[in-house]
Design brief:
Layout: H1 4-13, H2 20-29, E1 47-50, H3 70-82, H4 86-96, E2 103-107, E3 112-117, E4 125-130, E5 135-141, E6 144-149, E7 153-159, E8 165-174, E9 182-188, E10 191-196, E11 199-204, E12 209-215, E13 224-230, E14 233-238, E15 243-248, E16 254-259, H5 261-268, H6 270-273, E17 280-286, E18 289-294, E19 299-303
Antiparallel strand pairs: 1-8, 2-3, 3-4, 5-6, 6-7, 7-8, 9-10, 10-11, 11-12, 13-14, 14-15, 15-16, 17-18, 18-19
Pfam family, one: WD40_2
Protein name: Sperm-associated antigen 9
GO molecular function, one term: JUN kinase binding
Length: about 300
């Protein structure tokens, strides 16, 4: 629950935030039409270094959006007062609230990014910043966090000199023009694969640069939807498509296609399937199997071999 003054502040900041549908689907309808209207004067792929919050509205610690209720905090104080080593406990709790320890990252549609402790006092927000567009995906690889935005950029965060996460000093990596959403990300070995329109971009997080890009599907109007990595293979799903495409994690070579439509038809029966087409809506690798969720409500579990 937010206090009234916080709600009022949010309503002012978020006045121009698009609806959920606009944030996730707006670029899809005209993906093909904007292809020919690229502004030649615009620079290509670039890296921008940002030293401050681009919108200048970083939420201070005392106005963090999550509050501990007064009853909880009073009970916490009472509990401390009866314990012998009060100062030691307070110091220990303070150390637990440092982002040096494990954290949980949360991205919102309005562009707000929140970092919470995953050790103690989970309600309290450790760090927060407002980015310039909706946050669609967050991945962590070897001490670096990449945040995918709806405007086609990646925000790359590092720890500061004190070892805590520094949200005010980050890099922006632009995946190209015209701008479309970065739909999905997957950590593949020490790199990050990003689904952007019909392409897969392979980003080297440490160097903060794009190492490779390739078409995920022969159709230009296609859009990458999900990525799942296992071993030396990366499975890619395409929006409104029933076929999974497998790529080599190192050579980026297309290895295999798997159409799941026959399996869904066999399970539901062609009569029940009717005119609705099979599309992949979820993808995950677990227990050496590829789990595929479909828009028809059918889950398919595919065993993987070496």
């Amino acid at each position: 629950e937010k206090p009234p003054e916080k709600e009022a502040e949010n309503s002012e900041v978020d006045e121009n935030v698009p609806t959920a549908e606009e944030a996730t689907e707006a670029t899809e309808g005209n993906a093909g039409s904007t292809e020919d209207t690229v502004d030649i004067s615009q620079p290509g792929v670039y890296t921008e270094h940002v030293f401050t919050d681009p919108l200048g509205v970083q939420i201070p610690e005392d106005l963090s959006p999550v509050y501990q209720s007064s009853n909880d905090s009073d009970a916490y104080k009472d509990q401390l007062s009866v314990l012998p080593n009060e100062q030691d406990l307070v110091r220990e709790e303070a150390q637990k609230m440092s982002s040096l320890l494990p954290t949980m990252w949360l991205g919102a549609q309005n562009g707000c990014l929140y970092v919470h402790s995953s050790v103690a006092q989970w309600r309290k927000c450790l760090h927060s910043i407002k980015l310039k567009d909706s946050i669609l995906s967050i991945v962590h690889v070897k001490g670096i966090v990449l945040v995918a935005l709806a405007d086609g950029t990646l925000a790359i965060f590092h720890r500061g000199v004190d070892g805590q996460w520094d949200l005010s000093n980050y890099h922006l990596l632009d995946l190209g023009r015209p701008h479309h959403s970065v739909r999905c990300m997957a950590v593949v070995h020490d790199k990050v694969w990003c689904g952007y329109r019909n392409k897969v971009y392979v980003v080297q997080p440490k160097a903060m640069k794009i190492e490779k890009s390739f078409d995920a599907h022969p159709r230009k109007e296609s859009q990458v939807r999900q990525l799942a990595w296992v071993g030396d293979g990366v499975w890619v799903s395409i929006r409104l498509d029933s076929t999974l495409r497998l790529y080599h994690a190192h050579t980026y070579q297309h290895l295999q296609d798997v159409d799941i439509e026959p399996y869904v038809s066999k399970m539901l029966g062609t009569g029940k399937l009717g005119f609705s087409f099979v599309r992949i809506t979820a993808l995950m690798v677990s227990c050496n199997r590829l789990w595929v969720g479909t828009g028809n409500g059918v889950i398919i579990s595919i065993p993987l071999t070496e």
